[in-house]
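WARN no homologs supplied; continuing
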Amino acid sequence: MNLGWWWRLFAGALAGFLFFHGFAATETAPNYSFMYDATSASTLSYYDYIIVGGGTAGCPLAATLSQNATVLLLERGGSPYGNPNITKMASFGAALSDLSQSSPSQRFISEDGVINARARVLGGGSCINAGFYTRASDEYIKQAGWDGRLVKESYQWMEKSVAFEPSLGQWQSAVRDGLLEAGVMPSNGFTYDHIYGTKVGGTIFDQQGNRHTAADLLEYANPSGLTVFLHASVHKILFAIKGKRRPKAHGVVFRDTTGAKHKAYLKQGSKNEIIVSAGALGSPQLLMLSGMGPAQHLKSHDITVVLDQPLVGQGMSDNPMNAVFIPSPLPVEVSLIQVVGITHFGSYIEAASGENFAGGASSSPAVEYMNNLDETTFRGGFILEKVMGPISTGHLELRTRNPNDNPSVTFNYFKDPQDLQRCVQGIQTIEKIIESKAFFRFRYEFLSWPILLNMTANAPLNLLPKHYNPSMPLEVFCKDTVMTIWHYHGGCQVGKVVDLDYKVLGVDALRVIDGSTFNDSPGTNPQATVMMLGRYMGVKILSERIAN
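OK structure emitted
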């Protein structure tokens, strides 16, 4: 048996998988009259609300607040619209493998040695993710202290324009049926809801394969109430301190692509606020750059301390993901995440497939293995497991005072033994799926389970040293092959950095509304809930504004 060929197949397919979650846009770009490049911004301007970050939360938040206030939305990236290479789901790969300054994705490598990415585009992570759309559980909503009725209304507000039911092909159907054979019961059919068992979830790709992002939600904005500046890099939040009981946020400094400095201030009014929605890396980073964070750390970067807040940047978590590639003797459909198994032991099982995994993976660590490989060698798919929560946490620190530079982040994957046990049980479930009757025709008999695991363990998945061989326990496999599924969160958590209304503790007129506030990742995949939170808090803030 020549396993060298299979290794080349696997490495090439893996290379594509690492960069498979590409970037696309609706075919017809909306004509947003309120969207400009930051070079056209005036030196000084005034608004009721200033939102930093036009991402998955920032876009629905801005659209909502613009209905009854003047809103400035500042996005460091460009528009998701108009790029012919990124319109269709079949054109995956271009974004996450693009390391240029103009890329909608900015790569970073955590101190753990795991390759990761953050969004740099209007629409945020919804432009570069796998598109899976699923709600948070009822328990999560209750624990967050959210109003269940408004949460449901907020989800539905988005779903009418960005969520769709996927068409299941044969391979995804085999994964679904294999999950049921493996005991991940019951079968819950198609639903957005988070329910134990196996289900088909939603997707932000329509039936024509076009991606619909959070940027599309700006169609609901009041054009006369919203100004969006692209390529606007916010360097710091400005605070009024003199004569104040405590610091009050009252403006921001941002720069355009020429380096020109602009200042935007809040108009007079007790309800006016600055809202940071820059994501789990960007939000704690900006707070630190603005003088809020651990005092000694800020002083080491010559940053004037506005508020000594040691919990900024703490509680960073990234849900560990481990995957197994299964070469297929049969052609398989191109598919992203469509089916999910929600287990009782705390692992979520998902899958992706296709013959064009390698498309666009020009900068993968495995790219050398892809050269001269025939397209048919990429037949197959990945079945992955993601640990819920997770329990393990790390921290974020500044590397430089440049907001465009990545901060240093440590996630401490599998530091908590329960996370590791959930991974082991998830991998054991994947084995049951692969061995199921439903999945039988999509695998080669001679590629046994130990061989499949060994192929994964020897692939260049991350920058960690390799230890695993088939005689070792699955705990070693989990640690050696850990990857990200881009669901990292924390850094500005509720109860630590912000209160239940997402107001930053210790200062006035400043909120953080995005995934950096989460203590756990919501649902199996968080994007629906991050979008929901933007809409939800927009409605709440406006209702408070009108009431007073």
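Residues 1-9, 15-27, 356-373 have pLDDT under 50 and may be disordered.
OK
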